[in-house]
Amino acid sequence: MTRTDRVSRWIDASRAAVYGALVDRGSLEAWLPPEGMRGRIERWDPRPGGGFRLVLDYLDARGGPGKTSAGTDVVDVAFAELTPPRLVVQRVVFEAEDPAYAGTMTMTWECAERAGGTEVTVTASDVPPGIDRADHEAGIASSLAHLAAYVEGRGQGASPLGP
Fold first, then answer.
1. Nearest-angstrom CA–CA distance, 31 and 21
2. Which of 34, 35, 40, 62 is the most buried (most CB within 10 A)?
3. In sequence order, what are the residues at sequence separation of 6 or more whose Cβ sits closer than 8 angstroms to the Cβ of residue 45?
4. Contact 29, 43 (CB under 8 A)
């Protein structure tokens, strides 16, 4: 059975600014890692059919929460659709030996103009069963909070997680 997780957040920034942060390498590295993680992009090809490889390191790897290794999640992300300034669709594959993380998850980032800002809705479909729903939704919400801080100018040019 497939699972879909969905999280939304209103951001006090233009739709163009939000979309730009969704498709810019440096911006993604700054805001995308959820709380408790640091990330780096190893490969970058920002076009439909292109994508990127993201390495996420846990700041505290006690208990071995990582999917790729005890302290790391590695994902290959393909851009399935880029429709400025409203939609980014990604196909995400985890690098993991555990079959509970197998398969391709689709992440749809939709940007809708709302009341002087932008509502960003992230819909993750075909979520691998090894990913806990509450943890996943909390991670998406954390990334959206970092995105908001980044595009609202509180974190522009620097990681919202600090140095």
1. 9
2. 34
3. 51, 52, 79
4. no
What pLDDT is attached to residue 1?
55
Which residues of the chain, if any, have pLDDT below 50? 156-163
Length of the chain: 163
Distance CA 19, CA 151 (A): 10
Which segments within the chain are labelled E, that is strand? 4-11, 37-45, 51-58, 72-83, 87-94, 104-114, 117-125
> Which H or E run includes 133?
helix 133-151
H-run or E-run covering 31 = helix 25-31
Residue 90: which of 111, 109, 107 has the closest Cα?
Answer: 107
pLDDT of residue 160: 38
Residue type, 121: T
- Diameter of the chain by CA atoms? 45
The residue written with tokens 């292109």 in the block is: 50
Instruction: Dig out the tokens for 102 from the structure.
Output: 């197998």
Query: pLDDT of 68-97, one tens digit each?
Result: 998 999 999 999 999 999 999 999 999 999
4-35+80-151: CATH superfamily: START domain (3.30.530.20)
104 contacts 121 by C-beta, under 8 angstroms:
no
**CA 140, CA 60: separation in Å to the nearest integer?**
19
